[in-house]
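Hi all, a correction to my earlier message: I attached the wrong file for 9401_t:CDS:1. Here's the right sequence:
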Amino acid sequence: MGKKEHKFRSFFTLTEHPTNKSNKKAICICCIEANGYEIAKDNKDCWTTNIFKYCKLYLKNCLNFSSKYIEEEQVEILALDEEEINSIKKKSCTTYNSKY
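and the right structure:
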């Protein structure tokens, strides 16, 4: 059985990490929407390592995330549990996980 997904997982699509074999590379879905997948996957400003604290910090500082959500929504998202995040995500971000 694999690791349990952290609560910010629904805002990222995962790929193999080029230098870290124990964790996946988490590409921000909002950055994919803004820049396209091919650009986002290679741009260090569009991805982080798939670890809870790194993903949360990434979202706090992501310009595409902050332009997609108003400040109140950002605060709510960063404090929500996984079920609530999934219902918000369905309204706002397109899922790229099945495409890539």
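Sorry for the mix-up. The mean pLDDT is 82.
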